Amino acid sequence: MSYRVAVAGASGYVGGELLRLILQHPELELGAVTANTNAGQSLGSLHPHLPAIADRLLVETNEANLAGHDVVFLALPHATSAEVAKTLSDSTLVLDCGADFRLEDPSAWEKFYGTPHAGTWTYGMPELTLAEGGKQRGRLRDQKRVAVPGCNVTALTLALAPGLTAGLFDPTDIVSVMSVGTSGAGRALKSDLLASEVLGSARAYGVGGVHRHTPEMEQNLTKAAGVRASVSFTPVLVPISRGILAVNTVRVADKFDFETLKLVYQDAYSDEPFIQLLSDQLPTTAAVLGSNNVQISLAFDQHTGRVVVVSAIDNLVKGTAGAAIQSMNLALGLAETSGLMFGAVAP
Ligand SMILES: NC(=O)C1=CN([C@@H]2O[C@H](COP(=O)(O)OP(=O)(O)OC[C@H]3O[C@@H](n4cnc5c(N)ncnc54)[C@H](OP(=O)(O)O)[C@@H]3O)[C@@H](O)[C@H]2O)C=CC1
Ligand SMILES: CC(=O)N[C@@H](CCC(=O)OP(=O)(O)O)C(=O)O
């Protein structure tokens, strides 16, 4: 069976990555590709790396163009997704790559995004371990509305969730500092993202607990821990186009043993097709580039009583488009790995 899929926001970075993944998915057929300012342009002019669909034209993002599809991916700015979602049929599977439907607490949404809360959809992170037992994947089957996680959030959550679920980490003492690539900021022109501002430099942003991913991180880690988790998060923009390298540290709980922690992570992740636990290497963004993989390493800093969990993802694959396809597979009852079992690009 083939599912007809539309991509809203197909001219952007996430839209382009969705197109790349859709083209190599055996059960998907590409339907409408929509845009805003780029409506009328050919995909070839915007995504020259996808010659198979170079002649396809972008159309306007509206109800008529998005109707009649089995699956619609929204790769749109925050708030725009929520508006477009209102026009889509209840029987269509809709996956929002933006933030509009990720948070459960309306006050957290309003505090960090400054607009009314649009609602909450099923959260698309299959590997998330839950304090109540099982993993988030069990909740995705047959869903029609899925909120795809934030990219920075994915790098932190998958790094710490098993240790929190096992009660081996103190959920109130988590610090995450991430090196993040420029494509995370999208394709729209921004003066502080000019090559001359970014190349040869690194700079922190969203400093002081104000980054909008903080409540989503805390929501996930609270679900993993079963008690309230709090996170100090600081991203650092580095001159790479793709990738997130997260250095996450957490104070250990009273009953901590590093050998037990390693067994907990093996138990949680050894059967996960997209998560690699490294024991004799450290994660790098280069090693996951273009893939849906997550690399994770564990170290115990006995001197300070903290565990350092390093994780690496490609923000446009496991950080968005790949995660969206993975959740789509689960929601449709397809093999979770369908269309996603490709390696990274190196060097
Ligand atoms: N980049 C990343 O690494 C990640 C991004 N996300 C989220 O995914 C979403 C897309 O991000 P990204 O691709 O990076 O962003 P881009 O800026 O690269 O692309 C945005 C897309 O939305 C379209 N668009 C903009 N305004 C409107 C509007 N008013 N109505 C309809 N369409 C509009 C643009 O069309 P046009 O070009 O024609 O103007 C373009 O196709 C965002 O919500 C982002 O936060 C999530 C995780 C990671
Ligand atoms: C470099 C850069 O700006 N990265 C973005 C990535 C976030 C993102 O795209 O996620 P949302 O879907 O939640 O918007 C940031 O840190 O805000």
UniProtKB/TrEMBL annotation:
Q: Which lineage is the organism of this entry classified under, starting from the top rank? A: Bacteria, Bacillati, Actinomycetota, Actinomycetes, Micrococcales
Its EC top class is oxidoreductase
Q: What GO molecular function annotations does the UniProt record carry, in alphabetical order?
A: N-acetyl-gamma-glutamyl-phosphate reductase activity; NAD binding; NADP+ binding
Instruction: Please provide the record's keywords in A-Z order.
Output: Amino-acid biosynthesis, Arginine biosynthesis, Cytoplasm, NADP, Oxidoreductase
Compartment annotation: Cytoplasm
Q: Does the keyword Ribonucleoprotein apply?
A: no
What species was this sequence derived from? Aquiluna borgnonia
List the active site.
151
Q: Which GO terms describe its cellular component?
A: cytoplasm
Entry's family note: Belongs to the NAGSA dehydrogenase family. Type 1 subfamily.
Name the gene that codes for it: argC
Q: Which InterPro entries match?
A: AGPR, AGPR_AS, AGPR_dimerisation_dom, AGPR_type-1, NAD(P)-bd_dom_sf, Semialdehyde_DH_NAD-bd
The pathway is:
Amino-acid biosynthesis; L-arginine biosynthesis; N(2)-acetyl-L-ornithine from L-glutamate: step 3/4
One GO BP annotation of this record: L-arginine biosynthetic process
Domain Semialdehyde dehydrogenase NAD-binding: where? 4-136
Function description = Catalyzes the NADPH-dependent reduction of N-acetyl-5-glutamyl phosphate to yield N-acetyl-L-glutamate 5-semialdehyde.
Known CDD domains for this protein?
AGPR_1_actinobacAGPR_like, AGPR_1_C
Protein name, entry field: N-acetyl-gamma-glutamyl-phosphate reductase
